[in-house]
Amino acid sequence: MRFIILIASFTLWGSIAFAQQGRVQIIGDERIDLLIEKHKYLNRHQSTLDGWRIQIFFDSGTNSKRRATDALNRFSSRYHEVKAYLSFKEPYYRVRVGDFRTRLEAEGFLQNIKADYPNAFTVSDKINPPPLAVPASSE
To answer: Span of the secretion signal (predicted)?
Structure first.
């Protein structure tokens, strides 16, 4: 009886060990590779992303374009490190500033300019990706 159990256990352990040495081959659809390449291409060439800006001016009517341009120039001369954008969406000319990734960043800058622009507010918008800060090496 012991002999039969011993042979059965060797056979069982041998089959388990043999099963561990197998190879798995995955045969995938080539359309998946095409989708991955298309996704990479679109992300590489995407010029905008969702983010936040601060709207400092909007107006419609006579001379609204001139007033919007004046507001943009006034902001740019005072805060030259932050980019300002003039846009027209009928019937309003708007001046929006900044390229903030998060609302928290936009709200922080809004507090800095609130004295000059008391009616300014944050808006969700498509932004130009700001450059990422590179941490200094500790060498």
So the answer is: 1-19
**C-alpha to C-alpha distance for 76 and 43, rounded to whole angstroms:** 31
Exposed, middle or buried, 107 (CB in 10 Å: 0-12/13-18/19+)? middle
Domain boundaries along the sequence of the chain: 50-127
The string of pLDDT tens digits covering residues 49-67 is 899 999 999 999 899 999 9
The answer to whether 113 touches 79, Cβ cutoff 8 Å, is yes
Predicted confidence (pLDDT) per residue in 105-137, tens digit: 999 999 999 999 999 999 999 998 866 666 666
* Nearest 10 degrees: Cα torsion 108, 110, 114, 120: -160
